[in-house]
């Protein structure tokens, strides 16, 4: 059998377009899989990495986080996968820095503990919207001890339960999710709902139905001039204990609303996708932090939840994929489309 050829979309230097070229065919170390990618998805992080080189540890670089494809090689000590299995997974070049761990290639190495079998009924194009957002969502909800997201910035520890495959009894806890139509916000809505929480989401009016489809009990318009008042009022009327806000957008505009909501509710957690406002700008009873979406807290979800939840429809492949093109050459235009902004979609390139 001839050795397959690997190709990748390389970042040669910050701010330059990706260049498609040969890449070494990776091999699976202990606990790893090599995936022959059939689809990859784009995340805003990829745009930042391309533009500024942030988080790039080795040049040239292959980055990207979301893959779906067939298991090509199974490393030592991996029991859940066989060669030929259909799988989705979270590629972790972000933390490892190794090029073989970047998604933007024909073959990528992923840790088996950040992968799940993709049921036959679900296409690679649909399944690839899940991995990075899923791991981010678990980090939002279930971290039990604060850690360090970046120097001087703590990770938030809401300590909430993992999503369950069972129907959960009516909730005793309420979480506000700012950015209910974003990839991370909508996935967190799905997992929080599956963990028995009640979600009050904030999204554009055109995405109310989408956010509800992900499980939000109530959705408020991000452009409502009385937003903070309406959200805090809705939380107060809820019978559940208020656990805090997850801000999946994290801009000065959303922080102003977060602070107003928390002020009216007597404090709580503020979990953000970017560094939160400095403590001096927050009420003393607000516990703020930034998530960092590579964390083994997600392992039980990858190992025990993802496949059966996809199979039963409890975990939906949302936001829906928008296929930008086919082949590694299309990744550059997908990144440009992501920079231009998207609404309740995940950009995907098929390979
Ligand atoms: N720290 C981490 O570990 C981590 C992990 C993953 C992502 N992130 C960051 O999290 C952010 C979100 O990522 P993503 O992939 O989820 O983004 P995304 O899906 O590309 O976000 C687009 C969505 O955000 C919504 N949105 C934009 N501004 C909004 C606002 N002011 N209020 C409410 N909704 C708003 C848009 O809604 P409309 O349709 O109304 O425009 C759109 O649906 C990015 O900045 C990303 O870099 C951080």
TrEMBL record:
Residues 15-349 form the Enoyl reductase (ER) domain. GO terms for molecular function: oxidoreductase activity, acting on NAD(P)H. Keywords: Oxidoreductase. The keyword Oxidoreductase applies. SMART domains: PKS_ER (SM00829). PANTHER family: HYPOTHETICAL OXIDOREDUCTASE (EUROFUNG), ZINC-TYPE ALCOHOL DEHYDROGENASE-LIKE PROTEIN C2E1P3.01. This is Enoyl reductase (ER) domain-containing protein. It comes from Penicillium egyptiacum.
């Amino acid at each position: 059998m001839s050795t397959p050829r690997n190709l990748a979309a390389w970042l040669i230097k910050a701010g330059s377009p990706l260049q498609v070229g040969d890449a070494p065919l990776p091999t699976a170390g202990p606990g790893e899989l090599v995936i022959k990618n059939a689809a990859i998805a784009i995340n805003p992080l990829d745009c930042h990495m391309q533009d500024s080189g942030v988080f790039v540890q080795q040049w040239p670089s292959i980055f990207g986080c979301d893959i779906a494809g067939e298991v090509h090689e199974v490393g030592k000590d991996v029991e859940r996968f066989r060669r030929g299995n259909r799988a989705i997974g979270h590629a972790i070049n972000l933390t490892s820095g190794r090029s073989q761990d970047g998604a933007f290639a024909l073959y990528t190495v992923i840790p088996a503990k950040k992968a799940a079998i993709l049921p036959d009924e679900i296409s690679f194009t649909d399944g690839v919207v899940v991995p990075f957002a899923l791991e981010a969502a678990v980090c939002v909800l279930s971290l039990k001890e604060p850690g360090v997201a970046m120097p001087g910035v703590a990770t938030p520890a809401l300590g909430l339960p993992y999503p369950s495959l069972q129907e959960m009894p009516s909730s005793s806890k309420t979480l506000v999710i700012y950015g209910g139509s974003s990839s991370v916000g909508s996935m967190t809505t799905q997992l929080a709902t599956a963990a028995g929480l009640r979600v009050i989401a904030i999204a554009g009016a055109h995405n109310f139905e989408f956010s509800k489809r992900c499980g939000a009990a109530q959705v408020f318009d991000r452009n409502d001039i009385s937003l903070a008042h309406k959200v805090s009022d809705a939380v107060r009327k809820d019978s559940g204990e208020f656990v805090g806000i997850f801000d999946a957008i994290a801009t000065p505009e959303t922080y102003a609303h977060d602070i107003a909501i928390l002020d009216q509710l007597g404090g709580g957690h503020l979990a953000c996708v970017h560094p939160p406002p400095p403590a001096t700008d927050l009420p003393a009873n607000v516990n703020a932090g930034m998530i960092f979406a590579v964390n083994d807290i997600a392992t039980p979800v990858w190992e025990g939840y993802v496949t059966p939840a996809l199979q039963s429809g409890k975990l939906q492949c949302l936001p829906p994929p928008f296929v930008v093109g086919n082949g590694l050459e299309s990744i550059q235009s997908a990144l440009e489309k992501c920079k231009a902004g998207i609404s309740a979609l995940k950009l995907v390139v098929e390979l």
